[in-house]
Design a protein that fits this description.
The complex is a heterodimer of chains A (311) and B (328). With 311 residues, chain A is mostly helical. Helices cover 69% and strands 0% of the residues of chain A. Classes of the chains: A mainly alpha (311), B mainly alpha (328). Chain B: Pfam families: BPD_transp_1.
Chain lengths: 311, 328
Amino acid sequence: MSGTPAAPDPENRTWTDRVRRSVRTTSTSRALLYVVLFALVAFYLAPLEAGIMTAFKTQNAFNTSLPFFPPLGDGFTLEAWRVALDKLQSGLVNSLLLAIPATVLSATLGSFAAYGITNVDWKYQMPIVALFVAGIFIPYQAVLVPLARLFTIVDTQALLSPLWGLPFMHEYYANLINLIIAHTAYGIPITFLLFRSYYRNFSDEMLEAARLDGASVFSIYRNIVLPLSKPMFAVTLIYQFTQVWNDLLFALVIIPSGSGSSAPVTVALNNLSGGIIQSFGLQMAGAFIAAIPTLIVYVLFGDQFAKGVAS
Amino acid sequence: MQRIYRKLKRLVSGEDESLRADGGTTVEHAESESLLSSEFVQSLPFWLPPFLLMGFFVYGAIGWNFIISLTDFETFQLPTYKLSALDFEMYRQLFNDPGFWTAARNTLVLLVAFTGLCLVFGLILAIIVDRDIRFENTFRTIYLLPMSLSFVVTAKFWAWMYNFNSGMINVTFRSFGLDFLAHQWISDPTTKLAAVIFALIWQFSGYAMVVYLAGLRAIPDEHFEAARVDGASTWRMYRRVIVPQLRASTVSAAVVLMVFALKAFDFLYVMFGRQPGPAADILATMMYREAFGSLHWAYGSAIAIVLFVMALAVVTPYLYNEYRRGEL
């Protein structure tokens, strides 16, 4: 809705457009509005801008220049990025190995569950729906101790021992598998809700017609519901990817401390320290490197993300 | 499938009247079918496995956690689940622990202040962005940007923003000659929690804005017209007409923001480690420290149950309300 307000398209009229019909808006107040808007941009971007500037500064430039000023001349260095990337790269790989399967699995299972409960006729679904949805709101602290216990009792590493002989497989992947299982299970409630609100808007007639034709529950899903679910899959995958990538708590609990090799990037970033002198440049460079995947996803699919978040 | 699509097409174009006419009888047929071929049984493979997986990890784990909280499971000694050995000792200790009450108070302050301020700020943002501005999408994207970052990343940024010597906030004050405003933001107990809340508002107010924007645009024209005819001022219009209409948006945004606040553990952990100190200790950090730091598993589990009950108190009325409105 960035166009001029002249267009009388009722769909495109915003609230204040209506307000403005009775309140005379002067150009001064209009200018003031944009001043406020840009001040807010500064508020939201200031930490990021100062962070980027700092990440490119030498220690000397850091000590002598203002945080939000760009590094000049000798003050410019890529050292922090090089060190941070070096320390975070195995974390980045682990996070990818973890986030992609966990995201796809929880989105698929959420879609299955929402279809089986929303679009198939049977009574008394509400208690099940309530149990699914309430799962979104549980504080994760309430499951941490059992979760840690479970993965000491169930030894995934031993169970999957034949796998570790294969090329490119490492025993520490067992920790990642545990994390994938946990993220999938705890992702189901939110993916269920996202898909349910989407499937509820499917026309009954459409599915009823297929039913009358004798299509099975499975073939209706496979041939009608699944192809129509693509936009919702996009939203759910974006949301879940961000959630899993950004998680620290489960990784802290499920990945044994000290096993650096299987730590996802959030854990690696938290452990990132610049030796004796605390180097903010290193911390900032590391933070940006860890944030890049979700920032890319967000910038590319930001609008869908916003829509999904709002629904 | 071809058959289904053809039928669909006929249905949509309204050619197949017979299909609709006998819709009622087919339902009766379905009810008399054998149980095995009923839709309910056919739907089981779809929802039951995810339900069991989620149920085990969510409700099973909470149940297990509750039982652990009744034991005296500590260090590496395994819990005894003997019925006679289960008691509420951990809860008694907990309620006698002044640290617990501090953490509980901080949790409430964080929940209420963060959620309330985020809502107010988000509403203001939404009203500003809704003023028919140019590049609305760009502004909206920027305001929502911090939400895509993880707590670990935002905590790193804000730990530095608040740094006493070289942090941006203090340096900016000093460079304007306002040295007296420079402050130990995250070491001083009096400003610690406020500093955390401020950073969290930075991260999540964009979310409240998005929800309110959707709400603002869903208000029907007539409500505004009526207010205009009454000659209401802009301020009155917002206060009497718009804000009350946004009740549903407020409730849904508030619930989600509270969930974010409960997850603020990551943020505090990165900023302060295991010991945020009494001024910023919340139940989530206390639980993690007791269980995974001091290996007081049963004690940590008891804190977790208190936290769970708090969440339940917020969420149950919300879910019940959604159910009544047919939104669930």
